[in-house]
Design goal:
Length: 554
């Protein structure tokens, strides 16, 4: 593949012209007035008869018309998105910098439909069976700690992709959780994270899950070592480690060196990216919390979305639609961010999860053809659960000077019918995109204010310009399958944007430099001697900070 600059595609120039001629002054009020079927034209419902999942995507409140939408689809065609999707599913090494396949879709191909010829793919099923046996044994109480007691707490020790997925999913699927099994997640190297967790754990009944793809990540290995020391202080005998520590990794040797028994190792493969790994052994904490059967439903839901992504036409393909609309704002309107706003308390970690998923994937400036891009790539992803955000940052979305495209997500059914809470919650979910799209004109404000309308500043302050774009996504209910499909939808949206921008969404070279410098600085801190700072080769700012620290450290 040529991996041209996206801006060199013919439709890029046409989109630029469309932005100038109509995009930037597009008026949603008029568009909806002029076309009574706008919702029907710009919404798609996806459902699967294989799993309990259904997703409605309404993208009608976007600054698009048929000409713009078709031009965006042409961009996808020119970038050979279909071909790139096929390459991904075929196991081609599309992660070119690391010469790796990108096969998280193989992890959830539970029935083995994709027939991918890549080492390790045939080991997925046995590894899932291993996870099933183990999670069943722990959950039933058959697995005993070193004093013969069943496990009551699990502590997942991992960071980034080895933490965020399990955290997000166990929170989102809490209604399915085994409530008498406490799940903790320790990620930060800050000793506080581990100390506060160990405070509420009992070494006799705690299982530590050391989750690290590479098994070299400083935070995880340090945290795991601290946990093992804490455990051995009580258990004394190193042989007991086998009952309380398991490892999830691609690096079997390093996990063995750490002291993890072979049978307590859950492996995965280098074609699983960290931020796409919750479907692999990294999901063990999920299986422990919700049970293996539910974990498999999550995989099956994602698989159904994979099939849709692979087979649906571009114009009906949910991930492709989300990706193209994102590009429209990111590259032509100059939007810098994208908010993800789930109206479901259980989904409160969803935006955090896709902060890594999207920003680590598409925060790149080099194309696969080694050119520097001359357009913007990945957006800044942020958000939180509704309605909390409404009382915090929505002011800026409604009346600020920045265009912030938002995805609103909500389930039709709640897991907790409490009075009329759900109706109130959803009334907000429906109202916010409406307010953002159509706003409130100066005339409306004046009419509303009556006599007070003579206060010009008050009038102007109450105007909502509208035309602020949103997608609305509704699921029937946040079930394991529905969540799996929703996560896969966003994963594939990221993939399509990367394909169009011609970047490699599957490496993360940008996280390395800081790690290398920290390793250089650590000995200076350990030496506790400020006089060693000068001459260590740092700039005056870093040296000044180091000396301030060392002169005041206690
Ligand atoms: O699972 P590991 O190897 O410990 O890595 C954890 C995280 O480490 C970070 O450095 C990477 O940027 C992430 O992509 C990764 O998920």
């Amino acid at each position: 593949m040529a991996h041209k600059l996206a801006s060199a595609q013919p439709s890029w120039q046409k989109l630029q012209q469309l932005y100038e001629s109509k995009g930037k002054q597009y008026n949603l009020t008029q568009a909806f007035k002029a076309d009574a079927s706008r919702f029907d034209t710009y919404s798609r419902e996806w459902k699967s008869d294989k799993v309990d999942a259904r997703i409605l995507l309404d993208f009608s409140k976007n600054l698009i018309d048929d000409e713009i939408f078709n031009q965006l689809l042409s961009l996808a065609q020119e970038a050979e998105v279909k071909k790139q999707i096929d390459q991904m599913f075929a196991g081609d090494h599309i992660n070119t910098s690391e010469d790796r396949a990108v096969l998280h879709v193989a992890l959830r191909d539970v029935e083995g439909e994709f027939k991918i010829n890549e080492a390790g793919v045939d080991e997925v099923k046995p590894e899932l069976e291993h996870m099933k046996r183990f999670s069943d044994a722990v959950r039933s109480g058959e697995w005993k700690g070193y004093t013969g007691k069943p496990i009551k707490s699990i502590v997942n020790i991992g960071i980034g992709g080895s933490d965020l997925g399990p955290v997000m999913v166990t929170e989102a699927l809490k209604p399915y959780a085994k409530r008498d099994l406490d799940a903790h997640f320790v990620s930060n190297i800050d000793g506080t994270h581990m100390a506060e967790t160990l405070r509420v754990c009992d070494p006799e009944t705690t299982l530590f899950i050391v989750a690290s793809k590479t098994f070299t990540t400083q935070e995880t290995i340090t945290n795991a070592t601290t946990a093992r020391d804490w455990f051995l202080e009580a258990a004394k005998d190193k042989a007991h480690v086998a009952k309380h520590f398991v490892a999830l990794s691609t690096n079997v040797k390093a996990a063995t060196d750490f002291g993890i028994a072979q049978e307590n190792m859950f492996k995965f493969w280098d074609w699983v990216g960290g931020r796409y790994s919750l479907w692999s052994a990294i999901g063990l904490s999920i299986a422990l919390v919700i049970g293996y059967e539910r974990f498999e439903e999550l995989l099956r839901g994602a698989h159904q979305m994979d099939l849709h992504f692979k087979n649906a036409e571009l114009k009906d393909n949910l991930p492709v639609i989300l990706a193209l609309i994102g590009i429209w704002y990111n590259d032509f309107f100059g939007s810098e961010t994208q908010a993800i706003l789930p109206y479901d308390q259980y989904m409160h970690k969803f935006a955090d999860y896709f902060q890594q998923g999207d920003m680590e994937s598409n925060g790149k400036f080099i194309t696969k053809n080694s050119e520097r891009v001359n357009y913007h790539t990945g957006p800044i992803i942020w958000g939180q659960a509704g309605t909390n955000g409404q009382h915090a940052f929505y002011q800026l979305i409604h009346q600020g000077t920045k265009l912030i495209p938002c995805d609103f997500i909500a389930p039709v059914e709640t897991h907790n019918r409490v009075g009329e809470h759900h109706e109130i919650l959803l009334s907000n979910f429906f109202a916010q995109p409406e307010a953002l799209a159509f706003g409130k004109s100066e005339d409306e404000v004046r009419a509303e204010l009556g006599a007070q309308a003579s206060n010009e500043f008050l009038v102007k302050s109450k105007v909502f310009e509208g035309n602020r774009p949103t997608n609305s996504i509704m699921l029937q209910k946040i079930t394991p399958a529905a969540l799996g499909a929703l996560i896969a939808l966003y994963e594939h949206k990221i993939a399509v944007q990367g394909f169009i921008w011609s970047i490699n969404s599957y490496d993360q070279m940008g996280v390395e430099l800081g790690k290398v410098l920290a390793k250089k600085i650590l000995p200076l801190l350990q030496a506790k001697d400020a006089s060693k700072v000068d001459g260590a080769g740092h700039d005056s700012s870093t040296s000044g900070l180091l000396k301030f620290y060392l002169n005041n450290a206690k």
